[in-house]
UniProtKB/TrEMBL annotation:
It comes from Lactobacillus crispatus. This is XkdX family protein. It comes from the Bacteria.
Length: 59
């Protein structure tokens, strides 16, 4: 992990603790590749679970 990544992780932990951002925000960061699953757990205290794709409705 680069120093910049470590700084962002520390910032995100504080943001979550202060209630500035909730879990959906960090789930989005994981989906975008800006945060990994280990970082998500460090921020939220919970394992990251990828959302399940919804099947397309049948006509």
């Amino acid at each position: 992990m680069t120093d910049l990544n470590a700084l962002f992780l520390q910032m995100w932990v504080l943001d979550y603790q202060m209630g500035l951002f909730q879990k959906p925000y960090f789930q989005g960061l994981v989906q975008q590749g800006l945060l990994d699953a280990a970082g998500y757990k460090k921020v939220t205290g919970e394992d990251y679970v990828a959302p399940q794709a919804q099947p397309a409705p049948q006509a």
